[in-house]
Amino acid sequence: MTIAFKWEKIREEQPLIHHITNYVTVTDCANITLACGASPVMAHAPEEVSEMVAHSQALVLNIGTLSQSLIESMIRAAKTANQKQVPIVLDPVGVGATTFRLQTVQELLRQVQFTVIRGNASEIATLCGFREGKGVDAIDTELKQFIPQVRKLAKQLQTVIAVSGEVDYITDGTQEAQITNGTELLTKVTGTGCMTTALIGCCLGAGIPPFTSAITSLLVMGLVGEWAEGLVEADNVGSFRTYLFDGFAKMNNQWLQKKGKVYVTAG
Ligand SMILES: Nc1ncnc2c1ncn2[C@@H]1O[C@H](COP(=O)(O)OP(=O)(O)OP(=O)(O)O)[C@@H](O)[C@H]1O
Ligand SMILES: Cc1ncsc1CCO
Ligand SMILES: [Mg+2]
């Protein structure tokens, strides 16, 4: 099965993407949203999130630097989003690291219908019931071992789950995709996962279907990473990070079609 990429729809639609996210990578998430042709707004106060999400085209929730007041904002925003049929993507950053994060995500999953959930292998393993992770980075989790559980969880939650890593894995519980593009340098810059989740928000906001949105976003990050790696000397992570933003601004459907290594199994 081949994917018909609609990346350029983001530039055509210029969707407004509401992010409730962490303070480590917030600027990167805003800039990547802009580089793709969407419009970012970061709004966190419980007093304003419902109003903001009501005129946004997608909501991005990222629990990277969680606090009690943010939980209230996330639930308020997400409830309005669900009522208004605004798609929502969740990034369960470091969900296995503390009980607070785990209980928050469990509560969010009880109260909110997510369109896509994107995490690294440790984070998604935790959501599948194998609690893992000491911080926000993936530990050496073997994805193959828990693919059946990811599929089951996606079906149960009626959502798309995207697992990032050396090989990315995406499923809606029936269809599956694996992407082999990328470079290890992407793990040497903080926030490439958060930015991938922001990309999913941009795709969803442009009206791209959830499974295709997740595939497109992981593929774009992998391809732009490969391109940026080719422009820098080994280990020049600062320049690599800068080139990433140039790459997102240059991305197009032809690049995706030509260089993408995406293997899709239809259900
Ligand atoms: N070993 C690897 N080789 C190639 N690409 C990788 C590798 N590990 C991760 N990636 C890519 O890096 C990007 C970010 O994924 P990663 O799993 O590191 O996210 P993350 O842990 O949530 O990151 P962060 O929390 O710092 O934002 C994805 O595009 C993924 O495909
Ligand atoms: C390092 C870090 N800590 C909380 S959020 C974040 C950004 C990467 O997820
Ligand atoms: Mg992350």
From TrEMBL:
<comment type="pathway">
    <text>Cofactor biosynthesis; thiamine diphosphate biosynthesis; 4-methyl-5-(2-phosphoethyl)-thiazole from 5-(2-hydroxyethyl)-4-methylthiazole: step 1/1.</text>
</comment>
<keyword id="KW-0547">Nucleotide-binding</keyword>
<keyword id="KW-0479">Metal-binding</keyword>
<keyword id="KW-0418">Kinase</keyword>
<dbReference type="GO" id="GO:0000287">
    <property type="term" value="F:magnesium ion binding"/>
</dbReference>
<dbReference type="GO" id="GO:0005524">
    <property type="term" value="F:ATP binding"/>
</dbReference>
<feature type="binding site">
    <location>
        <position position="164"/>
    </location>
    <ligand>
        <name>ATP</name>
    </ligand>
</feature>
<keyword id="KW-0784">Thiamine biosynthesis</keyword>
<keyword id="KW-0460">Magnesium</keyword>
<dbReference type="InterPro" id="IPR029056">
    <property type="entry name" value="Ribokinase-like"/>
</dbReference>
<dbReference type="GO" id="GO:0004417">
    <property type="term" value="F:hydroxyethylthiazole kinase activity"/>
</dbReference>
<comment type="function">
    <text>Catalyzes the phosphorylation of the hydroxyl group of 4-methyl-5-beta-hydroxyethylthiazole (THZ).</text>
</comment>
<dbReference type="InterPro" id="IPR000417">
    <property type="entry name" value="Hyethyz_kinase"/>
</dbReference>
<dbReference type="GO" id="GO:0009229">
    <property type="term" value="P:thiamine diphosphate biosynthetic process"/>
</dbReference>
<comment type="similarity">
    <text>Belongs to the Thz kinase family.</text>
</comment>
<keyword id="KW-0067">ATP-binding</keyword>
<dbReference type="Pfam" id="PF02110">
    <property type="entry name" value="HK"/>
</dbReference>
<protein>
    <recommendedName>
        <fullName>Hydroxyethylthiazole kinase</fullName>
        <ecNumber>2.7.1.50</ecNumber>
    </recommendedName>
</protein>
<feature type="binding site">
    <location>
        <position position="118"/>
    </location>
    <ligand>
        <name>ATP</name>
    </ligand>
</feature>
<keyword id="KW-0808">Transferase</keyword>
<dbReference type="GO" id="GO:0009228">
    <property type="term" value="P:thiamine biosynthetic process"/>
</dbReference>
<feature type="binding site">
    <location>
        <position position="42"/>
    </location>
    <ligand>
        <name>substrate</name>
    </ligand>
</feature>
<feature type="binding site">
    <location>
        <position position="191"/>
    </location>
    <ligand>
        <name>substrate</name>
    </ligand>
</feature>
